[in-house]
Write a structure and sequence with these properties.
Bound molecules: coenzyme A, adenosine monophosphate
Strand content: 15-25%
Strand order of the largest sheet: 5-4-17-16-18-19-20
Number of helices: 17
Radius of gyration: 24 Å
CATH topology of the domain at 87-226: Rossmann fold
Number of strands: 31
Shape: globular
Structural class: alpha/beta
Length: 633
Amino acid sequence: MAYKDVYDSWKADPEAFWMAAAQAIDWVEQPSKALFDGNAPLYEWFADGKVNTCWNAVDRHVENGRGDQVAIIHDSPVTHSKKWITYVELRNRVAMLAGALRAKGVEKGDRVIIYMPMIPEALEAMLACARLGAVHSVVFGGFAAHELAVRIDDAKPKCIIAASCGIEPGRIVHYKPLLDGALEQATHQPDFCVIFQRENEVAHLEEGRDYNWHGFQYGVQPAECVPVEGNHPAYVLYTSGTTGQPKGVVRPTAGHLVALNWSMKNIYNVDPGDVFWAASDVGWVVGHSYITYAPLIHGNTTIVFEGKPVGTPDAGTFWRVISEHRVKSFFTAPTAFRAVKREDPKGELVGKYDLSNLGAVFLAGERADPDTILWAQDKLNVPVIDHWWQTETGWAIAANPLGIEELPVKLGSPAVPMPGYEVHILDEGGHQLKDGELGAIAVKLPLPPGTLPTLWNAEARFRKSYLEHFPGYYETGDAGYKDEDGYLYIMARTDDVINVAGHRLSTGAMEEVLAAHPDVAECAVIGISDDLKGQLPLGFLCLNAGTNRLHEEVVKECVQMVRDRIGPVAAFKLACVVDRLPKTRSGKILRGAMAKIADGEAFKMPATIDDPAILDEIAEALKTLGLPKKGRP
Ligand code: COA
Ligand code: AMP
């Protein structure tokens, strides 16, 4: 069948389409129907089915004869180690861990925060929660203690599972002290913590609160898989919104199973038994969906890679892993390829490895620039597929569905909508725009299975952020256009979210931190273009009248504050002091105009600007930072 036939068959009868896809899942009780729309515009899928995620990701493969197949390969250049875990071993490890959690009181519906680096135990912790019907929330290791504290207070976990440390090239990330710091800041306290002690750094355990990962499993009964309702939350994953308060995206159990399983063959073109590698981090949605859940649900072998595209030890690491583990389908962010390309522009290291098993490369997380795609196509000689999605959706909104049909690649486009997504380009008033016209990208409700039904503890915010602006649609927060063949082009965010090295960050959250500096009266953070990371944050600081502090000192303190409050992942290193910020007459800061000046792009002077001369002052300040890089046209 061609893509168009599959898409049309979904459109003609979505209910039949998703019920058919649901047959690939093991149910404890079959759902009576796919869509539950009684509470529209809030929708649920397979709500009255009974199912368990861990059973589908682990146990059923053992039952079906895949017990000896490798489920997880841990390839860790930063610790010079490799490890293989079969499905039967994974089942036993997860059942014991779940048993130990249960023995300490963790039950269906309880929240568990997981704060771990790229080690198999992170996946095991996620799966152990799924086994019990507990709701995990994984926090990325690059966040500071404060961000962890915010998530602890929102999720109110009964238990926190962490590792003693993570390893970044050249430094140890002290997870346990970060966790202790977060617990000092948080109002909510968990009943207990479980710490996985790594050889690289053994952490202090707090008597009576912290348990050793291995020790606390002694003598427990392995836990069986607990059936949960189809609409039971599988996990909550926090992502950046426009403010410092992150949004807790809820992932519903059954839709997640059905959609991810469907995506593995139809989009990524892998069969059970194939090796699938997503070089991301379990702390991001890509890690949730395509390191942990989808490959395991589909009976693939997944790779947990603890390293970087470059420097661990060189720009050939990706090719070494692909070759050594016979990877069939590889998923990464464009920024990672840009880092490799910068070190090895001619791709000389590619030639050192046998990549004959590789079928395709998938890119997501940020816009894939044509240069990067062309470079990868040329060096790897396989389809290089850009696809577009978000934490909120959990799987691709638009892609080139290789397992259905390889559509022609159009550079700069993540191709076409997947079944379940009816994508429209709208103007401010919610009217559909013509092909080629730039507008807000919205998806007609209902969103397909697996996508967010709401935000954790924040239904009103869910409605306001996603449903109210364009009634009847889900607002993606991205802007772009469609061409005459229905290909989508994702051009920019419509909110204060920026994308740094494939990481989604809130400029609003950074502004909140800067505004707390005692000498800062007012501030603005914008995203500027960067050749490697796609975007970088840049801060403008207006100091309090009468402050005679050295500007460099204030800037340095502000940079440190963002690192301490949000974390190193914010990559906030650029800031300058200005007298005034450009604003509209109604007082709105003109961040877009400042970003254009910093990037050296032409822009239209906003008609509502209060005082155009301020933009010249901004341009002068940017020159001190060596911006714009390319020179203004
Ligand atoms: N734990 C702790 N710190 C982390 C971290 C983690 N898991 N991940 C990143 N950091 C730190 C980095 O060490 C760096 O700290 P520094 O300021 O002390 O150098 C900072 O956060 C910024 O990290 P990053 O933006 O990733 O830049 P980098 O210079 O370390 O590496 C790339 C650049 C391009 C190689 C890297 O960004 C990369 O591989 N990106 C892949 C993108 C990706 O997987 N995105 C996920 C979405 S698909
Ligand atoms: P996240 O929720 O962290 O996955 O970030 C989602 C956002 O990243 C999207 O809303 C887009 O702004 C951006 N994004 C992800 N994939 C792509 C892509 N293929 N092309 C353009 N932007 C993308």
